[in-house]
Amino acid sequence: MVGYCGTLRCDLLLLSWYFCSLLLIFCVELASAVWTYDQPPVQRSDMISLKSRMPNFGLQRYQWLTHTWNSFQTEFKCCGVIYFTDWLEMTEMEFPPDSCCSNQYPGCARQAHLHDLSDLHQEGCGPKIYSFIRGTKQLQVLRFLGVSIGVAQILAMALTLTLLWALYYGRKAPEPDSVAPPPQDDTAPLTVTHGASAEAPPSGCNRTNKACNAGAHAKTTELQFEMERLS
């Protein structure tokens, strides 16, 4: 909503807030992804938690736990948490459950423990269980979704930064290089006369020039005097 309102109103403050929020969220997501990726698949605390429940194996009130252990050991071909000897260390059992046998039948674990240990699964179930969880389709979908969201956030930040740049430089008024001269006034009226008055005055004279007017009057008086003398 912040990004939408900022884009609609062309508000630099809202767009800056939106960009900073996206950048912060992306950094947190990236740090979490790197931290999760660098973590070992099986933590020591997880192994201790699994081992602490092994003494309840075979008890009447923990039938679900017994069934779960048998299912895991049969499905993943493993035995114990880290090694098959976990059953001997954490419980009072003298040999592992029959679900640890590669070829299962009643009493197979006792027979293998006394004669041939190769008939028992040697690898523990802890690493296999966590490897299975990390490789499930649901987790793969979550990873793909996380990468897609990250790419969308990068594109949104790039577009927001471009819009901020355009708005910031678009609002700056251009500075004039020099002061333009005022336009010439071409609207002055032109006066047109007819007859004798249409003759242009001599160069350097106009109606307001007293010297020119006096000279013209003297010439007129002299012309009149000559005409009277001839007549």
Automatic annotation (TrEMBL):
Query: Would I find Cytoplasm among this entry's keywords?
Result: no
Where is this protein localized, as stated in its record? Cell membrane
Keywords per UniProt: Cell membrane, Lipoprotein, Membrane, Palmitate, Transmembrane, Transmembrane helix
Name the membrane topology term. Answer: Multi-pass membrane protein
A single GO CC term, please?
Answer: plasma membrane
One family name in Pfam for this protein: Tetraspanin
Report residue spans for region: Disordered.
176-204
Listed InterPro entries: Tetraspanin/Peripherin, Tetraspanin_EC2_sf
Q: Which domain of life is it from?
A: Eukaryota
The record lists the membrane-crossing segments as 15-37, 144-168
Q: What is its main location?
A: membrane
**What is the name of this protein?**
Tetraspanin-12
